[in-house]
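Hey, I'm writing a tutorial for new members on how sequence and structure tokens pair up, and I'd like a real worked example in the thread rather than a made-up one. If someone can provide the structure for the chain below, I'll link this post from the tutorial.
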Amino acid sequence: MYKGSISTMLISRKRVFLVIPQISYASTSIDLSDKSRYEYFSRVVPPDSYQAQAMVDIAEYFGWNYVITIQDEGNYGDKGIGAFKERATFSGICIAKSFVISRDPTKDLFKETVDDLFKIKKAKVIVMFVNEDNAKHLLEAVMHANKTSELWFLASDSWGAKVHPVVGQEQAAEGAITLLPKRSDIKEFDDYFSNLTLKNNKQNLWFQEYWGEVYNCSKGNIKLHNCTKHKYEQEGLVQFVIDSVYALAHALHNYLQSKCTTVMRHCPLLNSPNRQELLEFIRNVSFTGIVGDVVEFNSQGDGMGRYDVYQYQKLSTDGYGYVKIGEWIDRLKINSSFLNWKEAEPNEVPNSVCSEPCTFGHKKEKVEREHAACCWICIPCGPNQYLVDEKTCKDCDDGFRPSDNVTSCKPLPLLTLEWNSLWVILPIAFSSFGIVSTILTIAVFIKFNNTPIIMASGRELCYVLLVGILMAYGTSLIMLATPSIILCTIIRLGLGVSLCLIYAAMLTKTNRIYRIFNNGIKAMVKRPSYTSPKSQIIICMALVSVQIVGGLTWLGFEKPDTIYTRQHTEFQVLKCKASQIAIIASLTYNIVLIILCTIYGIKTRKIPQNFNEAKCIAFTMYSTCIVWLAFGAIYFGASSDFKIEVTSLCMCVSISATVALPHKNVRQGASMYNNSYKSGRQNSFGSFPLPCPNGNLFNNLNANTQITQTTYNDVFSDDMDDLSCDEDANVNNNSTQTGNPENHSE
């Protein structure tokens, strides 16, 4: 209590009772807990440090983290607000501004203070450690400003539940929350005190003065009937006065019982007790007080921290009054059903914050160093970030995304190719048709393996070509499956090798045709080297081996594995782990083969019509170049969509295999089922009657082509090694016209 603390400290400073054990019923100053200065002082009321903590807890309960403080000049205000600020800092409560009321304030000072309060826009709660007179003057200034609904008060026990500060200022005080040390009215004392009169209480020298002040009677008035008792109200300190008296009585009783060995009335300690020993008994006393609470002291000689919490409200029936809304005994307990704020907004808790809480997915960014705990701006976290705490955003790990409330990460849903989707059905259908066609072609080749047309077509390279085509179709199907380490290994090797088999076989064929006709046109005098089937296979396999070695080297440096990658931030995709550079390097070799094969196709485009296989291979290369150019644009341009990426790669491989599949490009106008099979021979470059090894001339060459029989036999003898001639057969020009489509099936 304000005045009690001052009185006690003044007495102690004069050292009147400095070494005499004392028990106070009203002194609450924090300084009195300093036992180096007030060793023998004890009190049944709690120090203001407890009250400051209770006020901080109240501010936290209502979410007030930006407040203003007002204090009286002097020990009570300094220590009370000082304790509040210290505890507020640990609770994240900021002080917008602090005001000090001087010892002799004027009305202008209160007016200026209130005007300054209204200038602080966001802080609406005023924490007060002022005496009741200053509290009254502040409320008067608020009333005069006519802004009673803009400020709210949280006041200490010097305001408490007193009527004096609020009389005439009810509208300004409405909604104020105040504290008082926990107390109860004592009915027995009321009964006793109500029966006291000037006649029966003459032994109390101050009773007449009290009587005249409380009951509005003049001190010299002896007409007692003019004095009425309707204004009597029990003082709030009665409980503590009684408890302090009993505390000293219990301590003396315990002390004398413990120390006196003789009859009590003859004990010498009655006249000269040991002060230090008596102090120890006072500090160790514990008993049930007058209202049923336990009375005891802590190590500093302070009473237990127990407070009642009141709110000044407009009552429904009888004006204004204080309503008990809770209590503080080590921790705060508020009955929210008893709360009633100002009439305009009775159920809405006042707002006194510097910054509103950030919404989901936003972090706090400091804007004021002084009030960093309370003032901030809200900044959204990144699209793949979550809130570690209210001030920090952190990226989710790969394969995770922020949860709905952005406080953690959750696994990204796995996006896969559905087997019933068009993205899968189309490549499967195309590849399946290609596989069936390739198998049928291989079957035809095997069935007619020893026929002149198959043998003369360079069957060894044709088989290599067909195997490459079949592998390409199969690889495109594997790419549609869910990736695994085994499948990724197959895809990494199979994609490059299958295409290499196709283009190596074609390059070897076109190169052979080019060398033969280039020498023939220049008047060949000897057979070109490395044109035999065995040589062609060796050349082809040498070309393929480069791709195989490159693929195995790639596997050595970068182990096959799977990886989860993010797709549009909302999904993750399981892919084969491979760098773009490695993929491009693997395909570059095949692109080189395509370019070389295309070049040879261009160079051999003017060979005789009957030698049209090179022309068809050239057309295949043109088509392949267009396919791969289109694929590059789609694949790398839509790499963010794995469906397009996978489907485009599968279709590119399948189409490349399809355009290379042998059809009419093997022979034009030649059939294994007409008479030419019996009467003529066909080499690997054109459709015309071939001579038997005995040297019969061939027919139907282009008029501009001049090739001697000797040169022809030297060049094409390898294709005819396994053929047997019908010695009785005569060359019938009418039945072996290679340019007549009516005589040949397609």
